[in-house]
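Field: sequence (string)
Field: structure_tokens (string)

Example rows 1 and 2, in order.
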Amino acid sequence: MSYTEIRVENADAVSTITLNRPERLNACTATMADEIAHALDHLGDSRVVVITGAGRAFCSGADLQSKGGDRLSAADAIYESLSRHHNTTLLKIARLNVPVITAINGPAAGMGCSLALCGDLVIASRSAFFVQAFVNVGLVPDGGATWLLPRLIGRARTLEMMLLGERVSAQLAVEWGMIYKCVDEDQFVHETKKLATRLAIGPTAAIATIRKNVRAALETTHANALLTEAEAQRAAFMTVDASEGRQAFLEKRQPSFQGR
């Protein structure tokens, strides 16, 4: 498929999806959301997904500009775009069987903030920032922000972001535990690639199960999480990678994981 609003590159078992509307600060349209979803359905042998932005922004939010009509029609169109396109893509990211790195090269606002934080590991350039600015224009957070942010940073900081609509710098996001890491601009591409490579040579089946179990544990009881872990450990023990990991440990060498 030929994409118009994203770029996709596949190299060394890593698929890099670049939001590619730099003239609009990569505002995410329904088309962009659908293209991301299509790319995620065609990862081939990729063992890691990296999502980043072209130009000086990661994503300025959902592009929900009214195309005319009365207020009710415009509101219904926004609902349709969010529920049928943006939200579908965000759920697809959450349910992938490979890890996701979001590489935040600039502002991540509104829906763009939610997309940024859906990464399993979020790495940001030092000049990047995160903002939930909906309140400033009389709107409310979307993209799953009200579910995701309290689980990352707690109720008080979530409400600070959402009620005040102020920027959170990359450094502060690290201090809050909202993201994995921020790095200087001249190291951003290098550090992102190094992180992706590290995951790509890892035990793919175990990584897939880890991300699945962590997400499930956010919505279940302690007892259920313990049972899920035990079942997952039994399955993991039977993988080729687990056998290689145990053998490498005994031989005091680095394991060579095959992803199965």
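Row 2 begins here:
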Amino acid sequence: MKSSSLLPRLLLIAALFFSISSCSENLDSSGACPLLCPPVGGDVQNTTIDAIVVDTTVQSLSGLGTEPVLLLANRGDTLDTRVVVRFDSLPQTFLPAGDTTQAIVQVDSAYLALMIDTLSIKGEAPVTIEAYDVDTTANDTSTAAVLALFRPDRFISSQTFARADLTDTLKYFISNDVVLSKIQNKLPLRIGLRATGTESSQIRISSTESGFPPLMHFRATPDTTTKPLTVTLLSKTPVGQAIAAANLSDYTVIAKAPPQASPTILAVGGLPPRRVYFRFDIPAKIIDSSTVVRATLLLNQIQNSSLDPTDTVRVLPQVVLAGRVVTDPQKAAQIIANISADTLTLRPGDAGLVNVELARAVTLWHLQKPDTLPRAIVLKPVIEGGTPLEIRFSSSEDVVAALRPRLRISYTRQVPLGLP
């Protein structure tokens, strides 16, 4: 579909979202939104149908480096993730107090300023963070190439933190000599961080996408009256790809992640992050000729005890905006919009019935033709790429029919027409 025809359609759908969101969900409400939220008349009928024609797990295609947090984890043989920050442009001069601009010939007190999500920290024992020089001409997205650089000859520095030292803003000191060498040789400074220690640990660091990116500070002189220099993140590669380069200014590298669910199980979250795509076939007599007062997707959650089973994952239902020309669920699952202010708070270790409310999505489908707005939704984690936890559900391929996804709809056949 050409962008010229796609834009008006998306604008129309966005307007519908706004109108529907402004309507009350109270069935006894006044006629505040008489057209989109008509008063209910007659008997409300309830039906549970096998309306899912496609349900599948797909990868998130947001891209490397688009995660809202950077995950630094050392969880034994279960989880190992590293963090890369890139400073591809380093200052060459500084302004001493009361003097003229001078070339940088020394570096003092160099450190990274990292914003930490203290509520998500795992582990009570001290954690050691090691820094490595991960500058390379290899493919920017090659995980293997980056992981190979976490070796002794690329070592920069290390620092050990007690649990009490892991505060909101973490100062991680790095080698002054390494920073100076990069400046003098006009080379990029790309740092890979790795967590080690006698016990497992996990830390979330704010990324560029969160608005609080890592920064580097240092002095070009021991004179404390001279203002320290601040260096912001920058990646100059891939060359000619500005968006990809911006994303790669900081990113998480996955060395090891918990095993993912089998292809016959629907999975949300994990590393690399995944989503679930559902497409429905709802009878026309319900979606076109009735007023739907409630629609609920019924899912059977499957227990996943591989990592932190009692932790919570917030899952968000989204409506798919891709038209019929996008037939690949993988691609369609990336063109989405929010349909609810409420999120599902789920624990990986739980099992049983999960209800996903879809009334707003069904209202949109009633107002739009299927080739304009497909009858499809996506379930995705709120923090995508920032958690290793994976929520699992039974799919339409489950051998037990009662565990397969179903759609429960409450509707009335009396549909008010026109405006009062």
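free_text_note (row 2): The chain has two domains: 3-62+262-412, 79-256.
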